[in-house]
Write a structure and sequence with these properties.
The structure holds two protein chains of two kinds.
Chain A: H1 14-18, E1 34-40, E2 46-52, H2 54-57, E3 62-67, H3 68-73, E4 106-107, E5 113-119, H4 122-129, E6 133-138, H5 145-148, E7 164-171, H6 173-182, E8 185-196, E9 206-210, E10 217-221, H7 226-237, E11 245-248, H8 264-276, E12 280-282, H9 286-292, E13 296-307, E14 313-325, H10 333-341, E15 351-360, H11 374-392, H12 396-403, E16 412-413, E17 419-420, H13 425-435, H14 441-450, E18 453-463, E19 470-477, E20 483-487, H15 496-508, E21 515-518, H16 536-563, E22 570-573, E23 576-579, E24 585-587, H17 588-594, E25 610-616, E26 624-634, E27 640-650, H18 657-676, E28 709-712, H19 730-747, H20 761-774
Parallel strand pairs in A: 1-12, 10-11, 14-15, 20-21, 27-28
Antiparallel strand pairs in A: 1-5, 2-4, 2-6, 3-5, 7-15, 8-13, 9-10, 9-12, 13-14, 16-17, 18-26, 19-20, 19-25, 22-23, 23-24, 26-27
Helix pairs in contact in A: 10-11, 11-19, 15-16, 16-17, 18-19
Chain B: E1 5-7, H1 12-22, E2 26-29, H2 35-41, E3 48-51, E4 61-63, E5 67-71, H3 76-81, H4 83-88, H5 90-97, H6 102-107, H7 110-116, H8 124-129, E6 133-138, E7 141-146, H9 147-150, E8 151-153, E9 156-157, E10 164-171, E11 179-184, E12 195-204, E13 208-217, E14 224-225, H10 227-233, H11 240-253, H12 264-289
Parallel strand pairs in B: 1-3, 2-3
Antiparallel strand pairs in B: 4-5, 5-10, 6-7, 6-10, 8-9, 11-12, 12-13, 13-14
Helix pairs in contact in B: 10-11, 11-12
The chains are: A alpha+beta, B alpha+beta.
Chain lengths: 775, 290
């Protein structure tokens, strides 16, 4: 079947998106539209002494100016964390913060929202915003976690000593200490996992309109989680029933975790439209995005591995600092906790002792960014494995092979109580080594050297924990016999409009052209949790399977009624209900049409054919894979050329190979970006953003990436009914260590054993110079 | 975008007249790759926009008695597609190719790149290495100066508010001169240059450097010539050692800065490397033609 599960079906949404017919939030302009501009904090830390809005209020076209004092007067709340450690059973309460929608009394990072200006046009709002005078008393700022925990560092919150919200530790410290005592070999690495930002192709944006007739407000927003936006705004900001607010997300141009939460601007436009009773739109510039989007990673780690003389791992120990920025908001604690929970990754490690502290600084909040904690864990582990292999003179593939959790050990319970349901780590690694022409490396290396370039290769084995919470999917036939998927998940680039219909077509035997897809409107989708943590196919796909099962069961009853048979005698296969042992049959479409018959239906069957499925990822799924990269490095300039990239991934059963490969490619691109180019830099003294435009926040382009070779080793997941594992993040998790390890391999002959991320040409040049000096 | 007056003169004289009438409140609109962005996103809007795209004198690439004339409104894409430039001055194609992205190159003009006069401009070094001249029109008529004189400082040329850049001329004797351009940025495209370099020389009898030129960008307040390195090379035999030596001399002539993008030490290293590589590239071009 052309549209069946596993087929490389091209994306239904692409013709629309590629020809400019997509509707992104800034494409929505409503009658009588007004425009909002934010006044941001121009300093990283300080006390707001006064805000003078008089001149701005008198500026042409200005309709409304709001400040933190107004928010306080209106009783509006702030944004807190989705959960703190104490909320998930960890008995160490942390310092809990509330991020105001507009700063009240104090600003804690550059780009914190201080005032809102609404005017007839965006330019009038922009001009008026420049007239808002904010008088600050500047306080000393701290931008790095390492500095922030020191005694005497500027305090972001008086209540959080040493800027520490909470400390977490997992594992067995005593046993690990003993293992290190007795180890034949120990390996140490110091890592800074650089601060990043998503830079989705469509920036955030919002537009809200208040309907005077119904009293309902509609918010159009670029988000990964429309229902989550409604829940948060209604529950925590406006303190009102969710029925007052409708949230709609049309096409969303990427999120990568950054749009998983709720932002002040979304509350501000809702608040403003209710005040002026006109639609209020906010569209940020790229610089505003770089300054005000929640950011990712920023973990500093000291890590050690203890091994016996044969290279068997005895224990893993690391201590980290997670720079959570000025506020802990939304899912901010996900990366902090998930890096700990995934610490042992794919290895059978007898004992672990891992810990981190969530540290406040005067930079924007850190929230999940593609991978969210898993890249940190895997980067630490793979750097340790690679370093240990070289120190011990053991082939890096061999060292991993000695320590990988065996396929027959599944299900495997980790020290942090994850249960890996399935995985063939050794076989997947072997497949990748073969695909990468591992044995042809020396020849390529010699050729590179003849051209003045060093060549290195890096292997990384990653694992990811994907899928979280429950979700709800609906299938609704209409009287014509066509079917609508109503998704609780939310596709913001993943291609659900293609894949879900592909699955339903396969399961129900309905032509994909007769399947409609709805998502992202709280009025049309009764409930949903959006998409993040690679959850959609696991949770949404499984729920969809159950919805399809319900359709089939109901359909059997309708078919039995129409064909005058017992429901027990109806079989469903290939889109047809058949009375067993006869040639009597009805298609799914015919049955659906019958279900809407105006008369003659047995009352117990109800009217219409609909199915609702729910699924909860009580255990995450664990996609994993092996990535191998080869780099060339210019011996004079230090510039890295990524020459080859091979990935073999186990994403469980693949629904659409084309889209799955696309996820790997895009993920690898982002992982390479972290390894080579991307870096949010703040001036350490002033907390000013140095990389405030794409001139300096440098993402890879297509021509910076080689043509990737991607293979799958499909090992079905056993913790969901369709055997899938999350596909969205593994590329990012695996690529970063694979690239850095390749760089270190290339430079090892020159005495270089460490390189910070991003490994820019100058940093490599500097490392070479330092190694030469030390030699 | 805020309101402004828009005029589109069709001759150099009427552009000059418009500038005379409206400066300093007028801005010239060429390809618009910088200006239109400014108009949208900054509050500093000019009162009058003088669109020079309709002026015939500002267009065209052709050989004249004096050399290769390139109108200031010629886009980077036109340069890349020009047969005469592809054949005679492929370094200019390489330089044009490093400007922005396809869309920027389709709209952005050579003149625009030069008048913006940022130290990291991609068009400057090659033209400087080719002793390019520029024609400037103003109320007192036309004048021609060297490109080197044209560049005054960061974002500052010698253009008066009532003057306009008409065209760029590569002197006849340099059309076909072996030249090579290299840009070093963090990634392959759409990146700010950490160093731009161009080198050009004729191969004299006895395989010697004749009329050597070395031009460097992003390592001083303006795009500059490394004249000491040029003097060193003039008349010397073309060898790898001399190319390397020229690179080391060029390092002594630059004024790089340390900022979060790169240290001056690293920029110096890059200048030595890329000066040498540009010289080698120009020589390789000569050999491939022979």
């Amino acid at each position: 079947m052309q549209h069946g599960i596993g087929q490389p079906v091209t994306r239904t949404e692409d013709p629309r998106l590629l020809t400019g017919r997509g509707i992104y939030v800034d494409d929505i302009t409503l009658p009588n539209q007004a425009y909002a501009v934010i006044v941001y904090s121009t300093i990283a830390h300080g006390i707001i002494k006064s805000i003078d809005t008089e001149a701005a209020s008198a500026a042409p076209g200005v309709l409304l100016i709001l400040t933190g004092e107004d928010a306080k007067a209106d009783g509006l709340g702030g944004f807190g964390p989705a959960f703190m450690p104490e909320d998930v059973g960890i008995p160490v309460p942390g310092h809990r913060t509330s991020r105001p929608i507009l700063a009240q009394g104090k600003v804690r990072h550059l780009g914190e929202r201080v005032a809102l200006v609404v005017a007839e046009t965006a330019h009038q709002a922009m001009d008026a915003a420049e007239l808002v005078e904010v008088d600050y008393e500047t306080l000393p700022a701290v931008t790095t976690a390492v500095e922030a925990v020191k005694d005497g560092a500027p305090q972001v919150y008086d209540e959080a000593a040493n800027n520490t919200s909470f400390a977490l530790r997992m594992g067995n410290g005593e046993a690990v200490a003993a293992a290190f005592e007795s180890a034949a070999h120990t390996t140490k690495v110091s890592i800074y996992n650089n601060r990043l930002t998503a830079n989705s192709m469509e920036p955030r944006g919002s537009n809200a309109t208040y309907d005077r007739a119904s009293g309902e407000t509609t918010l159009y927003v670029s988000t990964q989680n429309p229902h989550g936006v409604r829940e948060e705004l209604s529950g925590h900001i406006f303190h009102e029933p969710e029925t007052k607010l409708r949230v709609i997300a049309r096409d969303v141009g990427g999120g990568f975790g950054m749009k998983g939460g709720v932002y002040p601007e979304e509350a501000l436009v809702v608040w403003a439209t209710r005040k002026i009773q006109r639609p209020v739109k906010w569209t940020p510039s790229r610089t505003e995005s770089l300054m005000s989007d929640d950011q990712g990673r920023d973990q500093t780690v000291e890590a050690e591995l203890a091994l016996d003389a044969d290279g068997k791992i005895l224990a893993l120990r690391w201590a980290a600092l997670n720079n959570v920025g000025a506020y802990i908001v939304g899912a901010a604690n996900v990366p902090v906790m998930f890096s700990l929970r995934l610490a042992q990754t794919v290895y059978a490690i007898p004992e672990i002792d891992v810990g981190t502290k969530a540290v406040f600084t005067n930079v924007p909040p850190t929230t999940p960014y593609r991978g969210a904690g898993r890249p940190e864990a895997v980067y630490i582990m793979e750097r340790l494995m690679d370093t240990a292999a070289h120190e011990m003179g053991i082939d890096p593939v061999e060292l991993r092979r000695k320590n990988l959790i065996a396929a027959d050990a599944m299900p495997f319970t980790t020290h942090t109580h994850y249960v890996y349901d399935s995985g063939e780590f050794d076989a997947t690694m072997s497949q990748c080594v073969a695909a990468a022409d591992w044995d042809g490396f020396e020849k390529r290396k010699a050729e590179s050297e003849a051209n003045g370039r060093w060549r290195g290769r890096g292997l990384a084995y990653y694992i990811d924990d994907t899928g979280i919470f429950n979700d709800r999917m609906e299938l609704r036939f209409d009287p014509s016999g066509s079917v609508t998927i109503v998704a609780g998940t939310f596709s913001h680039g993943q291609g659900h409009e293609t894949t879900y219909p592909q699955m339903v077509s396969d399961w129900l035997g309905v032509d994909a052209d007769n399947i409609r897809f709805i998502q992202g409107d709280t009025a049309a989708v009764s409930f949903g949790r959006g998409s993040y943590a690679s959850r959609s196919m696991i949770v949404g796909g499984s729920a969809l399977r159950y919805a399809a099962d319900e359709i089939i069961e109901k359909g059997k009853k309708f078919a039995a009624h129409v064909m005058e048979a017992s429901p027990a005698d109806i079989e469903f296969a290939d889109g047809k209900f058949v009375v067993a042992g006869t040639d009597k049959q009805m298609s799914m479409t015919e049955v659906a049409q019958w279900a809407y018959h105006p008369a003659g239906l047995p009352p117990e069957l109800g009217i219409g054919l609909e199915g609702v499925g729910g699924f909860a990822a009580t255990s995450p799924s664990f996609p994993n894979g092996c990535h191998i990269s080869e780099v060339e490095i210019d011996q004079e300039t230090g510039k890295v050329y990524l020459d080859r990239f091979v990935a073999v991934d186990d994403m469980g059963i693949v629904m659409n190979t084309l889209l799955a490969h696309g996820q790997v490619q895009g993920g690898v691109g982002q992982g390479v970006g972290q390894a080579l180019l991307e870096d949010l830099q703040y001036d350490p003294d002033s907390g000013q953003l140095l990389t405030g435009s794409f001139l300096d926040y440098c993402m890879p382009r297509a021509d910076d990436l080689p043509s990737m070779e991607i293979e799958m080793n499909e090992v079905p997941c056993t913790s969901n009914p369709i055997g899938v594992k999350g596909a969205g993040e593994g590329g990012t998790v695996g690529a970063t260590p694979a690239v850095i390890i390749a760089i270190l391999d290339a430079l090892r002959s020159e005495g270089v054993n460490d390189i910070p991320m991003p490994a820019t040409p100058e940093r490599i040049w500097q490392a070479l110079a330092d190694a030469k000096k030390a030699a | 975008m805020r309101a402004f007056d828009y005029i589109a003169p069709d001759s150099t004289e009427s552009v000059v007249a418009a500038l005379a009438a409206h400066s300093p409140n007028a801005r010239l609109l060429g390809g618009g790759t910088d200006l239109i962005v400014d108009l949208k996103h900054t509050s500093n809007t000019p009162k009058v926009l003088v669109d020079v795209s309709q002026v015939e004198d500002f267009h065209g690439i052709e050989m004249t008695d004096r050399g290769l004339r390139i109108g200031s409104m010629v886009t980077h894409t036109e340069i890349m597609k020009s047969e005469i430039i592809q054949k005679e001055l492929p370094a200019m194609v390489d330089a044009a190719h490093t400007v922005g992205a396809v869309q920027t190159r389709n709209l952005g003009t050579l003149g625009g790149n030069l008048v913006t006069c940022v130290p990291s401009m991609d068009s400057g070094p090659t033209l400087l290495a080719l002793d390019a001249l520029v024609t400037i029109a103003g109320p007192k008529g036309s004048r021609q100066i060297t490109l080197e004189e044209f560049f005054v400082g960061p974002r500052k040329t010698c253009l008066e508010p009532d003057e306009v850049l008409v065209d760029i001329i590569i002197p006849k004797e340099n059309v076909g001169k072996p030249t090579h351009f290299l840009k070093f940025g963090l990634r392959k495209g759409q990146a700010l240059a950490l160093v731009n370099a161009a080198a050009s020389f004729h191969v004299g009898d006895g395989n010697i450097f004749s009329a050597p030129r070395i031009a460097l960008g992003a390592v001083a307040p303006v795009v500059m010539r490394a004249t000491k390195a040029e003097d060193f090379l003039a008349g010397k035999e073309i060898t790898e050692a001399n190319m390397a030596e020229a690179g080391e001399i060029a390092v002594t002539e630059i004024k790089p800065i340390t900022d979060f993008r790169a240290s001056k030490e690293y920029r110096r290293e890059l200048v030595a490397v890329f000066t040498r590589r540009c010289l080698a590239g120009a020589y390789a071009l000569h050999q491939s033609r022979a």
